[in-house]
Design brief:
single chain, mainly alpha, about 80% helix
């Protein structure tokens, strides 16, 4: 057990390469979305509205650092946080720095988690596909909960709104 961990510790370039590739992927996505952002912003549609982009920009001004780091660890958020940061025109230096911090933390933590889980639960090697599906499902629980909570609040809001009075027809 100790010998294998020493090998991983003796090869920090692998962790560095992983972090660099992860950051590079985010930077490319960010720059593409930043270039397309003005065209998307000009379009005020039924689903994608300017108001939402303004709210996104405000959110990233307030919580962008946390979103870029913590978003790495949530599968679906990981994909969209770069898109939103690019379209929302988050400051490049800020995005690059916090994206690199998140990449380093993600690569190191996932590598160490993989090492220790393999040592603790060697039976997972035989059922790796099942373990991956379970991990993804567990990661989706918070998103599903938020979706359900949002739907419930929308339904409550609809019930509380008074219905418009319909004109009564008096019998003649």
């Amino acid at each position: 057990m100790r010998g294998r961990l020493r090998i991983a510790a003796a090869q920090p370039d692998r962790l560095q390469e992983g972090s660099q590739c992860d950051t590079l992927g985010n930077v490319v996505g960010y720059e593409i979305r930043r270039a397309l952002g003005p065209a998307i912003y000009r379009h005020d549609g039924r689903i994608v509205k300017r108001k939402y982009w303004d709210q996104t920009h405000d959110f990233f001004d307030k919580h962008g650092n946390k979103a870029l780091v913590i978003g790495r660890f949530v599968p679906i958020v990981r994909t969209f946080v770069t898109v939103i940061a690019g379209i929302g025109k988050t400051d490049r230096r800020r995005f690059f720095f916090w994206s690199a911090v998140g990449a380093l933390l993600w690569v190191v933590s996932v590598t160490l988690l993989g090492y220790f889980v393999r040592q603790a639960l060697p039976v997972l090697l035989d059922k790796l596909d099942v373990a991956i599906v379970l991990v993804v499902l567990v990661c989706l629980i918070p998103a599903a909960f938020e979706w359900w909570r949002h739907r419930r609040h929308r339904a409550d809001d609809r019930v509380e709104q008074p219905q418009a009075d319909t004109p009564r027809q008096d019998p003649a």
